[in-house]
Design brief:
elongated, Fibrinogen_a/b/g_C_dom
Length: about 350
């Protein structure tokens, strides 16, 4: 693992190797103690994969035994066979490379000297997203993990919160915005909040790592921990950038669930600018205002509202809350104590 940021309470155990280094193609493993060798090595595509040595053994009577052969002592007739602490194949010793041996070798990306999944190195592989953490360590719980969002690039590893429960897990949380103290700015604004403390109730990652994450993720999910959620392509995350202030635009949602009603593969007129800019709410959907994008109003229940008049659903900084009078209960993002989470996978 390359040197970089460590989140609060996280430590990286390093012994023998301090970074994820490219392998030196000329590197050769040391031979086992006491063996003789002509220095031959085996290479595949120019990479040294082990050390081969021709090994001889000597019987107690002083007779030299050639590799791979068996002889008998002239008095006791017990067999003598060439051996090695390394694996033996037709008289040749092969020194194996393996994760945890203290050196970054072969296809290894880092050296893993422990069984922890949250230190940025899992079985000698570097996770770049929370989906990687889930793949490399399938039993991992939700929590803070170190990821390297650009792999071998210059951006340092950083702590992120991985949601391993919602919709199969593997979600990288990029924002957590509470109703009582909302962030109130669109996702394309670089307004990082507690970016090194991803477990905080009020949190947003910096914009640059979001940009570095995008080539590796496919979906963006917005929800408030209940049944109401929006699911769209990850590329939609910076929607609204460059539009005039408070302008709404169409977003295609793979899934959009609100108060028990579900839509799939549908366009919804969406607002991106938030209350911090004097607009109706950061990433909101107003049932009635669908007409601003030349779409029919009240899309979840054909021409019948399911939220309060003018409610800016999914925004935790709305200019108009859903109060549950039209169609109870109050939807998730407007419940007291609600925290809206935006995540990528």
């Amino acid at each position: 693992m390359r040197p970089g940021l460590l989140g609060a309470g996280l430590m990286v155990a390093v012994a023998g190797s301090t970074a994820c280094l490219d392998r030196n193609p000329q590197f050769e493993e040391p031979l086992p103690t006491g063996s003789e060798s002509d220095g031959a090595t085996t290479k595949v595509d120019g990479t040294t994969t082990g050390v081969l040595s021709t090994t001889t053994s000597t019987t107690s009577a002083g007779t030299t035994v050639e590799p791979g052969t068996t002889t008998e002592h002239e008095d006791t007739h017990w067999p003598v066979t060439t051996t090695s602490t390394a694996s033996t194949t037709t008289g040749m010793t092969f020194v194996m490379e393996m994760c945890g041996d203290g050196a970054v070798e072969g296809g290894e990306e880092c050296e893993d000297l422990n069984t922890e999944a949250d230190d940025g190195c899992i079985d000698c592989k570097v996770p770049r997203t929370c989906a990687d953490v889930r793949q490399f360590a399938p039993l991992s719980d939700s929590g803070v993990y170190m990821v390297d969002v650009d792999g071998a690039g210059a951006y340092p590893p950083l702590p992120v919160y991985c949601d391993m429960q919602t919709a199969g897990g593997g979600w990288t949380v990029i924002e957590r915005s509470p109703r009582e103290e909302p962030i109130g700015t669109p996702l394309f604004v670089d307004s990082a909040v507690n970016s090194d403390l991803p477990e905080e109730p009020r949190f947003r990652i910096k914009k640059e790592p979001i940009e570095l994450l995008l080539p590796q993720v496919a979906e963006m999910r917005i929800d408030c921990g209940g049944d109401d959620y929006l699911l769209t392509d990850a590329a939609a995350i910076f929607s609204g950038e460059g539009l005039p202030l408070c302008t709404r635009a169409k977003v295609v949602y793979k899934e959009a669930r609100l108060k028990g009603y579900s839509l799939s593969d549908t366009e919804l007129c969406t607002g991106f600018h938030g209350s911090a800019e004097g607009c109706w709410g950061a990433w909101h959907v107003d049932e009635y205002s669908q007409q601003d994008c030349s779409l029919p109003p009240y899309p979840w229940n054909f021409m019948v509202p399911i939220t309060s008049d003018g409610a800016d659903a999914f925004a935790v900084d709305p200019s108009a809350f859903d109060n549950g009078q039209t169609m109870p209960p109050i939807h998730d993002c407007h419940q007291p104590g609600a925290v809206r989470v935006v995540m990528l996978r």
